[in-house]
Design goal:
Structural class: alpha/beta
Oligomer: single chain
Number of domains: 2
Low-confidence stretches: 1-18
Shape: globular
Largest sheet: 7 strands, mixed
Strand content: 15-25%
Helix content: 40-55%
CATH architecture of the largest domain: 3-Layer(aba) Sandwich
Mean pLDDT: 87
Order of helices and strands: EEHEHEEHHEHEHEHEHEHEHEHEHHH
Length: about 375
């Protein structure tokens, strides 16, 4: 059932209109976009005297894994849910903050407008081609819908993005004026993503205490480059036979087939969803994120904040997030990833140093500065 929910602050100042600012979200809190949206809204409420509302789409068609016919049906339903959601956005707000470029069509109707752009993966030829090829065309409807919506970004009065890399992409690919684009790194909840005792975390999660554990978190999309991780892990098993790979997130049939082909079934644990991913970061010896295109890379920041050493792809926004606190490698280089994993897993002092540096690097990602930057963007539209 399609639902639209508005949560509003009490009216606090008589000289402002009742409808001051509205944040418009289309993803669940379990996703990167949804996590950003809900956390940003929470901090804006505590930091601003403005009347700020939150409007969200709750669609049962968000996840698309399973038989081909069901996947296609889910994707088409998701598109229709979005169209109905967009039609019902109310008029009368002073500022409209669209929290995903997938809702870009709103930017031509509701002004003044702000849009948060996580990435423009759908407009990057190498990324969009892989999306279509590896999904056997099933992702094409969603891809085309996203591409159409992204063209409306030109209508936004201000654009917020999560990395300098995304800002550069917006200027190069869409030709947008850099003066309209503001970079604001998102925050990490350090009460959730913090360092904990590894053995206790493993005990609580019912994971083996004496095996080397490698973790990967994220959706199964081509740009996440999970195949490179699996092939490097296959090589690693020759050096460290008891190594264990844990993956959290949906999984495509092509990924399942590769796991079987490489003989990794007994060394691989998959969770589609978990109650708290934070404890898995605490339980892991190493977090590997070989993605070749990201707008930010939430799991990398979460892993560092949790004290888990990070190896990640040296591409797009990831070097901004990792800084000098982790190891970067060319995302398509299986051999280099294998060598890096070997070195980290066999050198305890190095892992401890990486954990310390990762925690320090993660302090860059704080919700208060993110919310303050957002409020300044709102104020620039009032003046």
């Amino acid at each position: 059932m399609l639902k639209a929910t508005i949560v509003s602050q009490p009216y606090v100042h008589k000289c402002w209109k009742m409808k001051d600012v509205v944040l418009i979200n289309n993803r669940s809190a379990a996703t990167g976009i949804g996590n950003y949206s809900y956390n940003l809204y929470t901090h804006l409420k505590t930091m601003s005297k403005r009347n700020i509302d939150f409007l969200t789409l709750n669609s049962p068609a968000e996840d698309s894994y399973g038989p081909a016919l069901r996947i296609f049906s889910q994707k088409m339903k998701r598109i229709m849910d979005h169209f109905r959601f967009v039609r019902n956005i109310p008029d009368g707000y002073n500022v409209y903050h669209v929290l995903s470029p997938n809702l870009g069509m709103l930017l031509s109707k509701h002004r003044p407008s702000v849009v948060t752009v996580f990435d423009i993966a759908a407009l990057i030829p190498s990324v969009s081609k892989d999306i279509v090829t590896q999904s056997y065309g099933l992702d094409l409807p969603i891809l085309l819908a996203v591409q159409i919506n992204m063209r409306f970004l030109r209508n936004a009065d201000r654009i917020l993005c999560m990395s300098q890399n995304t800002k550069n992409d917006l200027t190069k690919v869409l030709g947008l004026n850099a003066k309209r684009i503001v970079v604001g790194y998102p925050g990490i909840d350090r009460t959730v993503f913090c360092q904990r005792d590894k053995r206790k975390a493993r005990h609580d999660l019912n994971l083996p205490l004496n095996r080397k554990v490698i973790l990967h978190v994220g959706v199964d999309e081509p740009r996440k480059n999970i195949r490179t991780l699996l092939r490097a892990f296959h090589l690693l098993k020759r050096k460290i036979p008891d190594a264990l790979l844990i993956r959290i997130g949906g999984m495509r049939e092509s990924t399942r087939r590769l796991i079987l082909e490489l003989g990794l079934k007994d060394s691989f644990i998959h969770f589609r969803k978990v109650d708290s991913v934070a404890f898995f970061y605490n339980a892991a010896d190493l977090f590997v994120f070989p993605s070749y295109y990201e707008g930010f890379g939430y799991p990398v920041a979460e892993a560092m904040s949790s004290g888990c050493p990070v190896i990640a792809g040296d591409s797009s926004s990831i070097p901004e997030v990792v800084g000098k606190a982790g190891i970067l490698f060319p995302p398509s280089d299986v051999a280099t990833l294998y060598e890096n994993m070997c070195q980290v897993l066999t050198d305890n002092s190095w892992r401890l140093q990486m954990a310390k540096e990762g925690i320090e690097q993660s302090l860059k990602f704080d919700w208060k500065p993110c919310a303050q930057t957002t409020l300044e963007v709102y104020e620039s539209l009032y003046s």
